[in-house]
Every structure is written in structure tokens, then in C-alpha cells.
Amino acid sequence: MKDGHVNTGWKSSIARCAGVFLAGFVATLSSLAASAPPATMMLSSGWQLQDAGKVSQAGEAVSGAGFQTTGWLAATVPGTVLTSLVNDGVYPEPLYGENDRATKIPETLARTPFWYRTVFTVPKNYKQKTTFLNFDGINYSAEVWVNGKQVGTMRGAFKRGIFDITALVKPGKKAVLAVLVTPQPHPGDPIEHNIRNGVGTNGGITAIDGPTFLSTIGWDWIPGIRDRDSGIWEKVFLSATGPVLLKDPLVTTDLPLPKLDSTDVGVQARLENITDLPQQGLLKGNFGGVSFQKNIEVSPHSSTAVSFDAKSTPALHVLNPKLWWPNGYGPQNLYELHLTFEVKGKISDSQDVPFGVRKIAYLVPDSENLTISVNGVRVFIRGGDWGLDEAMKRIPRERLEAQIRMHKAANMNMIRNWVGQSTSEDFYELCDKYGILLWDEFFQPNPSDGPNPTDLPTYLANVRDKILRYRNHPSIAVWCARNEGYPPKEIDDALRVLMAELEPTRLYQPSSTAGHGVNSGGPYHWRTPREFYQFDEAFKTEIGTVSVPTIESIKGMMPEKDWEIINDDWAEHDFAKGASGGDKYRGIIEARYGKLANLADFVRKSQLANYEAFRAMYEGRNAKLFSPSTGVITWMSNPAQPSFVWQIYHHDLEPNSSLFAVQKAAEMVHVQLNESDSDVQVINNLGTPITGAVARVAVYNLDGSAAYQHDFKVTAPASVATSLGKMDWPAGLSPVHFIKLDLHDAAGSLLSTNFYWRGMPDHPDDLTALNDLHPVTLEMKASRKDEDGKCLIAVTLHNPGSQVALMTHLQLRRQKSGERVLPVYYTDNYISLTPGETRTLSIEASVEALKGEMPLVVVDGWNVAVTSSSAGSVATMTNVGAQVDHWPTTGIPMYVPPAQ
């Protein structure tokens, strides 16, 4: 300032400089934007659907701008035909009650082609680009039409369709897409579930069609689905590129085991020139601070393979990489490789490829059995079979994430993708995220469940595309050709060629029930815990048991008239004669735990049975950790429909006691009682030994009195089951008594706790004395905090009484409506507390799922109640609807159909 005046010259200079800088910055941004490939555009709205038999015109007309769709229905895309018809109110929800019967939803859907049609506007920035129409999955075959022209066909549920529609559309203008979807050629006769005939046979003629949802003809875990899941089941989108396409990228990593301080990364891709002229350009790649590039020329209408490795490209020798580990063994670090191909300084095409640095091996020096190790650490496989992610392929990412996250919560580390029925990009991405290894299969069931595919080109084209599409996911551990049998020679030979060409690092396992100590074959029915300790095979791919859901889930899956009688509605949901032994289960429960009063009593007692069987299923294999047992996969962890059997959570995503039984048995460090020979064991799944630990065993009588206590000093080597000695059972125990195990580390921190109920040796399967337990009212405190859209509830439970509180079950609801919040993640549940014991756990749900209501935690159990409270930020109360004495005594009989 001079003489009271402001000198503005410096401001003008700065403004001019800023203007020049800003103009340059904007120009740079514009240049970058111009060079970047246009974004994809999803085609998920505006779809319509019509029975092709009601459409007299051909594809030229249906895909024309002037075509009238009067009478057409709204279509759900992605979604099956039946999903659209249910959403339109044409048919009721098939998986509720007995709505799936052919009297309510016609079987003709499995033989009826349908037209799908939508109108879309091509993005303006696709100008001077090549425009592609992309389908990620259609079941089973399709004709694709755009603006009056057929652009191609598709065949098989698992092969993508990618069509160049540049000549048929104009950027900024509307276009019409019509797709004629035809169901699989051999839909067969559906399997019906009922009390008279049980769940019937598995599968049938559908297997002859190969790459399709062959289980939808019906299996012992799913009745026939009336449209066999035909339709546009995966997403549809537009994309645009320049003259050269970047295809089929592959990233491989190698570690110099036992060292983990570096990795050699290999990158491969294929460049395809879709023009009449040769194209020169620059292939660039970068990830995690690593960059590389190469000049490439591609001849007209041809493709060339390009590869980089650490020898030719030193930057790909990466020091101190962040490793990807299976659940429980370490973090799930992921890198993202960004590949671009530039022509004349503009990006022609790009690919983003997530990958993980990890090294999988399949054999160890001291065993001929399949033994999976990751990054040099043996991984005891604790897994679950998925028959189908959802019976009607209703699998939004949010649902899949809840399903896979619950596997992580259960301490599982593998999902077996049975016959490849659960294939989607979200599925693989989420397994990567949560550290769930995949045993991934192709499209053939047990030879007794259907014929071999006859259309070999279609079969192999779908296999090839599946491998190319998903092979970069670190979660995939094993490719398996066939469930419970070897593929025919012509398929096996072709698959081995594909593996040699496309899969340089993973194991190809021809059969899920043979080779390398692998075995399937169940049993699948409920058994006593001690029976799960008797086995010969090393790697078990199928073993199961009945798994009854909560009373709320049961009431949500069938009308009230069916709640208190085991009838055809129960059979429809897999509770009937068959491999699960559903027809015998009621008698087993009564013999073991006492006469049934009603549905609430059936559920209460079944949760004990669930817990006993699922814990023993995994603890039995723990007992012989890597000697010889190397893995166990339960049939099944995920239900395709609301079910009474083979699941760790219900179709509505509420966990039952089975999930927490697996969670307990599958701990990385675990203390257990061998229920076959009374040996106390410490299971160390870690790659490092445990020293200076102490295991305490305490035995309680039925009246809650302490009958025995003993401490064991523990040294547990890595990847070994360590025996601490056999239980010295005291005299004078009550007819049923309880065993509590606690393992503390050298600093006194709790590593593992476990709790059992046991009958006397002369009648080990008579646990009816549990009915003599007196009720226990627990003291309960709960508090809430919200964080990043999550409602986090801390719960403290205290048993102030003199009796054991058995199988305390918490369930989160909305206070005002009383409705359950689903999904919910519990750090523990179905907890048993000894007299004077206090336990803490946490509950997580989304704030949005509470719908503005206060969270309510309700409690039930074998003999458990809590005092109601609305103080603070969380309400608590006893789950009255789960109490046996809240309902009339019915005996819950089994319906006997009249003689034919």
C-alpha cells in the first residue's frame, strides 16, 4: 500500500499467470479425457419380456424401432424368466411354502422361448470408436438382434457373448436390442419332493446339455425349478474401444520359498487388431509402483500374444511384496494391474486386472495326499460345498457378500463350487476379498445323476471362457473336471490340453472323489459326534448332516398351517426320506433329547443337534491334522432354497447354531475334546509353534456344581494336533454333565474356549436329563456405536445363577416392528455359560437395515432368559416366540399319506 492506495499490479500478474496455468491444466485434463477409453454403460433398465409363442414377428421386426410391445411384461435383467414373472405378480414366490408345485407354476416354462427387448441410447463419446454389446451370461441359447439385424448367437450359460454393433448404431441415438432366449434342449422331468416318495432321485437328462444350471431339474437339496433358470441371468452392457483390443490378460507370481521377500511377476495378454490396416502402439502396464511397457505392431485382422517376465523386464522382480493369504493365515492383499494399449498417443483399450501374490502347492514331502499349502504354510482345508448360490440365480452382490462373509466368520477357508453352478464375477471377487479358496468345477455331475454332454464344442467353449475370465483370481486353488466321477476320455483329454495352454500354475483334479486321497460320498445324515472321528480318507469333499434353522426362519418359509406338522411342505424344503435321513430325524431327536412338545421344542433341541454334529464334523478331522487328514468340506454350507438340511445359515441369511459350531471347531488355535476317545487336544493351524500355554479342563454336574479341574502345560508345534492326555473322568458324575476347556497363552490371554455336554459311557446317546436344567436369567448389558454406516453392538452376558446356561442364542431385531435385521454378523453365538461366568461378544449390522428404529437384542436358548430393558441405546428382552411353553403342545407329528 502506498499513500493509501492499493498496488494491484501484482494481482494482475498473478491472475494472468493463473489463467495461463489453468488453461494449460484444463487442456491437459481434456487431452487425458480424450485419450481415455469411454466408460461401459450397463443395460439394466427398460427391459420387457414376452412368451415367444405370442410374438408372430421375426427378429428383424421385434428389434425394429416401430415394434409395438403392447401386452409385454417388465423384465428383470439380470434375472431369469421366472424371476421376471414373479416380480410382475404373474406367479407367487416359488420358494415359499409349496408355491413351486406345477399346479401353481407351469412346467411349460422350461420349454418356452422368451423374447427380451429394450431400447437404449448409445453414449455420445462412443463416436469414432468401435461399439461392443456384451452379455456376461445367458441360459441356455440366444439370438441377439440390434436395429433389425441379427448380430450373433450364444450357447451355454457360462460363456460370454461379445458383439461388434458399430455399423448398426449411432452414438447419441437410440437403438433397439431384442434377444430371443431359448431354454436348454433337454429340461427333463422335474424332481418333486413329498413325504410319500421323499426327495426323489438326483438330476437326470439335463446333464446332457453340459454348461447349464443342470441342478434345476431337481436334486435332494432343491426341487425342480420350472424355468430351469433360463434367461439373461448375468449383466448386459455396452463398451467401446479403438482399433486394437486388449484380451485375455494373465498375471502369474512366484515366490522363492521359503523366503517371502520377493516375487517374480509374469504378465501375458493378447492384442487383436480389428481394422484393415496394421497398427503400431505401446502396451503399458503398472501396479503397486511398478511400470513396464513395450512397442508392438499388430497386423490387420490378426492377434498377437505379448508377455513380460522378470528376466526381460527387471521391474517385475518385486521386493517385499504384500502377500495374499487364505482366511486366518494372513491378510488378503490385492494388487491391481492396469494395462493399456495406446495407438498414436490415445488409449485404444484397457484392462484392470486384480491379482494376489501367493504361491500354492499341492503336495508335501511326508504325504501322497492332496495337501494345499499357501506361501509355504500348510492350510488345513475347512470348507463348504455350494450346490447353487440361489435357486433362481437371484444373486445381487450384496447377497453374495453376506454369504461369503459368513464363511469367513465361520473360520472356513474354502468353498467348493459344485459342478460350477455358482459362476459370476462377484463370486470370485468376494472370495478374493475374504480369503476363501475355491475348489472350482466344470459342468458334469456324478455319472449316475445324468448322461455325458453330447455337444462337446459348446461344452469346451464354456470351459475355456470360464478359465480365461477368472484365472487371475488368487482364490482359485483347484480346477476339477467332474463331481464324483471321471469325465469321459474325450473331455478329460481336451481339458488337459486347455490346462496346459491356459493354466500354468493350478492343480487339475479330474474327479472330486478320487486321486490324491480325495473322497466324497457322505454320509449326509445326522450322526453322533463320536462317529465323525472314524474315517479313512485324507481330503473329504462331501460330508453332511441335517441342519434345522431358527423358528423365525421356519415360520418365514411356510404358512402357519404347516408349522406344527411335518408334511409335504417340509418335504418341499428337503425334510423327507433321502440321503439326509429327514424321515428319521424326528425320532433321533426324541431319543436323544426327549419327547417333542411343539415346533419351538423341535427347534430348541435341533440347535443342540446341529451344534454337536457340525462341531464334530470338523473336530474329528482336526484330531488327525495332516496325519492323514488334510481337508473337510461340508455338504452344504450354503442353501439354494429355504431348507431344513445341509446349511450353516438359512436362505434368509440368518445363521443357525451350525455356523457357530464350525466357527468354534475351525479356530486357527483350538482346544478340543476328542469325543471318540476322550483325548484333550490342542490344534495349531499356525505356521509357528505355541509354547508356554496352559489348557484348563473343568467338569460340571447337571446342578452346576464343579466336579473336576485340571491344568495341562502346552507346547504345540506348527500344523499339528497335539495330544495333552486322556480325560480322567471323576466318579459320581450326573447322567449328563458338562466339560469346559480353556486355552491361555503364556501371557494369560485366552486363545480358545470350548464347551461340551456328555452322557454317561453306558448310555452316551441319552441326553434327556438336560430337560432337568432349571431356567437361568442372565444379566445382559448392551451398548451401541455407529461407524462407517455400521451399527456395532457390544454385548456382555453374565450368568449369576448356580446352573449352566446352555446354548444362549442372540438375535438382532428392530424394536418397534419386532422384525429381524438380516444379515447380521456375530462374533459368537449359541454360547453356554457356567455359573458365575461372563462373556462378551459383538454384533454388526448396517445402520440402514435398522430403518431408524432402536436395535433390539432378543435372547433364547435351552434354559435361558434375560430381563427386558429399554435403557440406553439398545433394548433387550427374552425371545418369547422361541419359548416352548409359549405354544400349545402338538407333538409335531409327521404326516402319513393315505395308501395309494
What is the topological layout?
Layout: H1 9-35, E1 41-42, E2 48-51, H2 59-62, E3 73-74, E4 79-80, H3 81-87, E5 114-121, E6 130-135, E7 141-146, E8 149-155, E9 161-164, E10 174-182, E11 231-232, E12 236-241, E13 244-254, E14 262-273, E15 279-287, E16 290-298, E17 302-308, E18 317-319, E19 335-343, E20 346-355, E21 360-361, E22 373-374, E23 377-378, E24 381-386, H4 397-409, E25 414-417, H5 425-434, E26 437-441, H6 456-470, E27 476-482, H7 489-502, E28 507-511, E29 518-519, E30 539-543, H8 551-557, H9 568-572, H10 582-593, H11 599-622, E31 631-638, H12 657-665, E32 669-673, E33 679-684, E34 690-700, E35 706-716, E36 720-726, E37 736-744, E38 750-759, E39 776-787, E40 790-798, E41 805-814, E42 825-826, E43 831-833, E44 838-846, E45 855-860, E46 864-866, E47 875-878
Parallel strand pairs: 24-25, 24-31, 25-26, 26-27, 27-28, 29-30, 30-31, 39-46, 45-47
Antiparallel strand pairs: 1-12, 2-3, 2-5, 4-11, 5-10, 6-9, 6-12, 7-8, 7-10, 13-14, 14-17, 14-18, 15-16, 15-19, 19-20, 21-22, 22-23, 32-33, 33-36, 34-35, 34-37, 37-38, 39-40, 40-44, 41-43, 41-45, 42-44
Helix pairs in contact: 4-5, 6-7, 11-12
